[in-house]
Design a protein that fits this description.
There is one protein chain. With 190 residues, the protein is mainly β. Helix content is 11%, strand content 30%. It has a nine-stranded mixed sheet. The N and C termini lie far apart (46 Å). InterPro entries: Glyas_Bleomycin-R_OHBP_Dase, Glyas_Fos-R_dOase_dom, GlyoxalaseI/FosfomycinResist, VOC_core. Residues 170-190 are annotated as: Disordered. This is VOC family protein.
């Protein structure tokens, strides 16, 4: 039993795909996971779709038009989202979000800070133009903050703040054809 934090399992595991339509076909069509939330990221940055994987937990996928092709060893963003880094490679693990009770969310952030863990500001994720509200308000569907493990793996404590409806799945999935060409590398082939 965890005596430090009342973790309720994995809130969502966020991975990166090259083709959102193909991902929906596999996770919903093959594995039977309902698509419960779609997000169009601000500024054409991409998409973020959530699938119910049971027990209130989700597996989620980012689609980034500029995502590098999958490269072994490229496993997570360089920094936390509020520091300007969200991009990671197709097939990589972007971050792991642990579900925490909404009533203990802010307490847990304080507790981690007291333990010397550097944490991001609280993000109130909503469907506004930039995807984040400055304060808790109607429309916020999840509250979260980010931190990294000693190897730089991006972690998140998150709590849902409302139930999803059919209206939360409203974006047309991007495909591999919508991606921008990979940038040329100056590195010599291995």
């Amino acid at each position: 039993m965890n005596r430090e934090f009342e973790l309720g399992g994995i809130n969502h595991l966020a991975l990166v795909c090259s083709d959102m339509r193909r991902t929906i076909d596999f996770y919903s069509g093959v594995l039977g996971m309902p698509l419960i939330k779609t997000i169009e990221l601000p500024g054409g940055m991409g998409q973020h779709f959530f699938f119910d994987c049971g027990g209130g937990d989700c597996v989620a996928f980012f689609w980034f038009p500029d995502a590098p092709d999958a490269v072994p060893g490229v496993s997570a963003p360089k920094t936390r989202p509020e520091q300007g880094e969200l991009l990671s490679a197709v097939g990589s693990m972007n971050h792991v979000a642990f579900h925490v009770p909404v009533e203990r969310f802010e307490e847990y952030r304080t507790r981690l800070k007291e333990k010397g863990v550097e944490v991001s500001p609280i993000l109130n994720h909503d469907d506004s133009e930039f995807g984040v509200a400055p304060k808790m308000r109607d429309g916020v569907f999840v509250r979260s903050f980010y931190f990294q493990d000693p190897d730089g793996i991006l972690l998140e404590f998150a709590c849902w703040t409302r139930a999803f409806t059919d209206a939360d799945v409203s974006h047309t999935p991007k495909t591999a054809a919508d991606r921008r060409p990979a940038k040329e590398s100056n590195a010599a082939p291995a």
